[in-house]
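Students often ask why inverse folding is considered easier than folding. One informal answer: many sequences map to the same fold, so there is more than one right answer. In these notes we will look at a single instance of the problem. The structure comes first.
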């Protein structure tokens, strides 16, 4: 088990576009396990590899309260979307910030499993929103990009101030 460091906005590495996974093997499954450990430890309901500075198209999600419904997506694609849903979103890379974002309410996903099989499935509500949020990370996009410039600048200043006032924590995450 390993807890990985999570990048925080405005770290420019969060803007990296992730590359497709070419081979699903034991090394990749080890990374996926570490990503689940990191997400559960945070705690959060989703984590993209981009957030732990690994620029491959991998996402882990678990929206269950008991942390017993892990979902891993490798090279995921949204192949259909329908409807609209507005939800309060937060992000482990933008700590303490929650804002409303409008996204599709129903989506259909095509993805590889951790065994390397291609599957398709439908998602709606919170799961659909979470998948769309995490897939955005793989393209270097954050949920605060949907807000106004003014609001995003305020969030940036707030987080920069907080990281300056907590030097010990900043040093720990830098290491
Ligand atoms: Ni996020």
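Output (designed amino acids):
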């Amino acid at each position: 088990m390993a807890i990985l460091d999570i990048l925080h906005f405005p770290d420019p590495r969060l803007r990296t576009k992730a590359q497709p996974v070419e081979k699903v093997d034991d090394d990749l499954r080890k990374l996926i396990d570490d990503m689940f450990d990191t997400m559960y430890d945070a705690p959060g309901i989703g984590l993209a590899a981009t957030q732990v500075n690994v620029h491959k198209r991998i996402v882990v999600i678990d929206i269950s309260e008991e942390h017993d419904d892990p979902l891993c997506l490798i090279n995921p694609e949204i192949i259909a979307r329908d409807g609209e849903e507005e939800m309060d979103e937060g992000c482990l890379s933008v700590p303490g910030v929650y804002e409303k974002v409008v996204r599709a309410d129903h989506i259909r996903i095509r993805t590889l499993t951790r065994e390397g099989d291609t599957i398709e499935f439908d998602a709606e509500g919170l799961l659909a929103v979470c998948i769309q949020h995490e897939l955005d990370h793989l393209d270097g996009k954050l949920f605060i990009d949907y807000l106004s410039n003014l609001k995003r600048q305020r969030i940036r200043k707030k987080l920069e101030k907080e990281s300056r006032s907590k030097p010990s924590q900043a040093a720990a995450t830098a290491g």
